[in-house]
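FORM 7B: Structural annotation worksheet

SECTION A. Query
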Amino acid sequence: MGKEALVVCGEQRKAGITVWDLETGDVLLRILTSGSQPHGLLCLQNRVLVASQLQKDRPFGCGSIFFWHLNKIQAARVSYPMEAIGPIASTRDGVYLVGGAPSGNAYIWEVTSGRLLKKWHAHHKPLCCLTFSHDDSFVVSGAEDGTMCVWLLISLLHTEDPQCGGSVPSLQNWSEHCSSITGFVSVSGGFGPALLSSSLDGRCMVWDLVSGRLLQNHVFSDAITAIAIDPGEQLLFAGREDGKIYVNALDLGLQENQITISEDESGVLFGHEGPITALAFSSGGSFLISASEDCTACLWDVQSWQLIRRFTHEKGHITNLIVIPKSSLLATKENQGLHLQPKFSKLEKTCQLSNAQTGIVTLLSGYNFHEGHPSATYSLSSSLLNKQILDTEHGRTPEMIQVKIGTSIENRLWIFNMTKHINSINQHLQSRVIDMVHHRLVSDDAMIVRRRRGKAKTGDLQENQESPS
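SECTION B. Predicted structure
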């Protein structure tokens, strides 16, 4: 706990973002005029804060996405997507960022270059939750009508369509919840990737992402507004509208049939006077942090269930909270040298044609931490990229790392396109084989018919020869 910091924000821009020392309660940083709806705040690689902001006072519900380095209060980058973005989520390595819109559309960007890789219509109602699976293979989306969809990440990275529009086939489509989705937690599970979902219908459900099976169903008497599980995936924490936090055992072993667990089997934490809006754990799992519309965040000892500290967000209720390493806030040259700042660019409004087909990787401007302005944009061929990697293999410069990222992206696209080409060849070969088999069967049938006719004629001839004249 002594090495971690708590980051919270409210929905109103005037509320701003506040960062506290989790152990002492001291304010470490305040970012003014910034607010996000629930699930609209995250931290890329524990280095860069990202927040989506709806501007309801402007026409057409305009919005923006802000990026901050954790040791500066000025935004390092501001992007203005084609439409307002509510919930956001990122892969663990910070390479991809997804965002959901009130229109039901979803977007996925490549953070380093800012490229919009895909826009698709995910739901008929506004999106309110997004997450990646534990292994980053799937994207899960949830909407206000209670529907949930699972998308294969590889299908979202398909960039042949320059318009990036239209529909994308979902792997799973669930409608068991009958009210707005309020939370997702990705679980590793002993049986494969799983998902924990919560809803205002008062239920928390555990799903197998691959098979689509419902594994567990936790039923409560009041709306569930936030969920979390401990790092050991043994306990489920469900925050309710009445300010209570219910604690249930979470057995993620192999289950043949779904299990329904009632509220009577739960423990309860009392500490808030308003609806719970967010829950999170410290990295070690010893402490739970809860936030509420009562403008406070509470720190709980998981072993004793005691309330250790209360944080007060003076300018409004809290909609989001995350826990980050306190070292991320340090701005010393030594720390900067050990931990390179992630690169990110302005997010595109629309999809652009990829340079991957020409054998060129474009490395777009990364943010220069020291000078506070974008560095130059340049392009390198594949052969030159490989040569520079070999020449700088024993160094650890930002340029070398950026070149490696570029080559990795190009290789990933090449593998994806080659896989599609091979699949196309296989389908063609299968079609040819089927045609050949069909032709062979027809030929065999024709030959059998001819033989039968020949035998019949021979039999008739023999009968005519044997019959007396």
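SECTION C. Observations
The mean pLDDT is 80. The helical segments are 153-156, 333-338, 382-391, 398-466.

SECTION D. Sign-off
Analyst initials: ____
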